[in-house]
Amino acid sequence: MKTILSILSLSLLLASCQSNPSTVTTTTTTTRNDSAEYAAYQAWKAQHERDSIAALNTARTEQAALSAGSRSSACSSSRSTGSRSVSSSNNSTSSTAMSSESSNAARKKGWSKTAKGAVIGGVVGAGTGAVVNKKNRAAGAVIGGVIGAGAGAVIGNQKDKKDGRH
Q1: Is residue 84 part of a domain?
Q2: pTM of the full predicted structure?
Q3: Can you list the alpha helix ranges (DSSP code H) found in 74-112?
Q4: CB 149 within 8 A of CB 122
Q5: Rounded CA gap, 122 and 91, in Å?
Q6: Does residue 134 lie in a domain region?
Q7: Domain count along the chain
Q8: For residue range 59-100, what is the model confidence (pLDDT) as tens digits?
Q9: CB 63 within 8 A of CB 85
Q10: What does the alpha-carbon distance between residue 137 and residue 132 come to, in Å, rounded to a whole number?
Q11: Which among 117, 138, 113 is positioned nearest to 127, based on CA atoms?
């Protein structure tokens, strides 16, 4: 059994080491297309940031005009002072909301917990299935892997929902 497994592993290793020249040229053209798309994305991102800054400056100007109008109408009123402090806190709240949106976008990169759970569950299930089914370890590994991947995906999906990734 060990010799069959070692021969199979060695043949897979040798088969994966062979390179295909046409694949290399395809990868190069894909990289060129990706860099063009990346440049377009960077241009869009810069424009989006300029638009956001312009909108924020416009909102601040309007808020300052409203605040100046309320100061001239009731300068000694404590109520207008309270409204000014509320409006300034709303401004900081909106900038905080903008920063939290960008942190959500950055946080969503990478593997989801659903995918991680499926992979971990599949590996553990395959190992357990191979150990439990002593007559046919391959069938036990396949069945255990499928069941484990499904269970891991369900658990990971629940964690993603709890974190607000969906």
Answers
A1: no
A2: 0.37
A3: 78-107
A4: yes
A5: 48
A6: yes
A7: 1
A8: 888 888 777 766 555 454 444 444 444 444 444 444 444 554
A9: no
A10: 8
A11: 138
